UniProtKB/TrEMBL annotation:
Record-given protein name: Uncharacterized protein
Amino acid sequence: MKYFLKNDHAHIDCGADMPVYDEEHGCWRAGTMTVTVAHEGELTVEVVEDASDAQVLPLLTPMTLYMAFKPAERIAIKTSVDPLVQEFWAMYQLSVQLQKPTDPNLASVREAIEYLAAPVEPGPGAGILAGAERIGEILAGIPQ
């Protein structure tokens, strides 16, 4: 069984960990993942019995992924001293160099984008994206 947090823009794969809303901290928690939203009603939990029923996102060309970030987000990513953000940027640059797309369905890609959206405090997170709704927009390659 797989769990997802979803709304009109986001479809966040929580894997086998059932997401639970943490009222005290105003965020969703699933295993080691934390997703912060403005208020509880913004995301709902979807249960998928068969993983093949899960939404599969198309591969993102380097330019599609780049344009899914807002200019201020791109600048923050490029200038970050956070090792996880630097690793994300290195992965992106490698995809450009090799002319290979990024698979938004991979757990490592989703986790990297979720990290960019997570606030620095209470952390861990980079605090680069405006909010959790940006995760789904970026993974879907929606240009900004």
